[in-house]
């Protein structure tokens, strides 16, 4: 891994902290802190300056000693002096520094006065009420420490995007109403539409004197305040979701939004493009020779490095920058491109509503068609349909269609793929339907080759329109089964059938990479909600987010097509 300026600054910061805890010479400590800042704000990579044998002592605050240390860090990734300091001090002290509200001064006094040298001892001291009596602490700080330790135990915990969405919406609306607040935006993985979110990042532009931070930490849903400052605060909501809020100036809004939207890899790549042009790009703006030249909008940031604006869902440094440079960014599919939903259940199997109720709800969303796709008989827990009940349902759909104007209910099924790759209903029954969705609900543990071949055999049956939830994963709950998705995509291409992107927030299956693969192979992806009730139809938006992360355009998505076109695409998959 090449060493970046941030890495060098991090070494100096940690050295300053450790020296501070040890009670070292304040001038020495300040020298390291200043050096860290110089390094961070430098518009060029020190690594390159070292390679070019440039004189680093020409930089402000960098003397012989620091210049040698920079060379050492570039060469080895760390500094022997830091290793020595770490070895001299209990490891727990460094960890304690990462707790918001605990700076070197406080860590030092916890260590000296109470003998605390680990997070466990810190927690015990706080629980025993020993910390409140230390000079400079108090009861409130003691509680903050306990809260932060709890939050720390929770970090690593992730939330479904769908679980944080209502919280994000409510908080944004509430922030907007605070006096002096001019602009509010979500950032981070949430804005990139990742299927799971570690914490929520929010950005605010506010006039000077706006009470935004005071109000933020008083928000109803706040359980703990983890840190509160003028430009940055963090809280834990009742739901245990952490929210980081940053307040920025108008002229920095675009630059900050770009920075805090990430991903980190994308940021680093953009910043490097800036460096190549002699620009410094950070969360405050775009700078040439310390002079602000832009950053009010994200467009200004991208324009500074000769790129068009890049949609957040693509910002993973996985080819989007090259595509942007060549003018080949995809025109991503949008929610209002969808014309229907082709996977849903009704009360006939394990759903909650009637066919008519599903149809009316879908029409209210602006759709032109839906498909009813109940489970097949094998799935007894879901009251799967046998041939007789399926044919009865067909008649009900015919009756309904004759009443509905400008809206069509298609006849489908979600048929189980049996262990040998046969389908759970006979071909002559399936043939009478408009489409056949097939999926796996048993034998998840087959070896990868067997599982893949099982599904390929199913695809080769005379009636097979699309494979539903292809990997079987349940986010945060169940890993995908072992299956070779690229091979399935290839087979779907040859067979002329389709892949589902199941939009259920727990599934989002296909994943983004496989969506991209399907697009590149020319296999259309169908965004289906798998709704079990009318309110589930709304989940399509999560499928759209995932499709966009997968670079899909309107034409790559099956259910953006008009009914007529759809029917001819289906006919080929139904042996017609
Ligand atoms: P998450 O919360 O784990 O789902 O993922 P993110 O992407 O929201 O990550 P988070 O909350 O840690 O940080 C928000 C954004 O801030 C991240 O996407 C990029 C930016 N960021 C954070 N730390 C760094 C860093 O060390 N370097 C750079 N270049 N950007 C960073
Ligand atoms: Ca985040
Ligand atoms: Ca964050
Ligand atoms: Zn289903």
Structural summary, described in words:
The protein is an alpha/beta fold and 576 residues long. It has 4 domains: 5-155, Orthogonal Bundle (DNA polymerase, domain 1); 159-248, Beta Polymerase, domain 2 (2-Layer Sandwich); 253-325, 2-Layer Sandwich (Beta Polymerase, domain 3); 335-573, TIM Barrel (Alpha-Beta Barrel). The longest helix has 18 residues, at 5-22. The radius of gyration is 29 Å and the shape is elongated. 42% of the residues are buried. Zinc ion binds at residues 343, 345, 414, 530.
Question: Could you give a quick summary of the protein structure above?
Answer:
With about 575 residues, the protein is α/β, with parallel strands linked by helices.
Helix content: 40-55%
Number of domains: 4
Number of strands: 17
**Largest beta sheet, briefly?**
7 strands, parallel
Which small compounds were modeled alongside the protein?
A: 2'-deoxyguanosine-5'-triphosphate, calcium ion, zinc ion
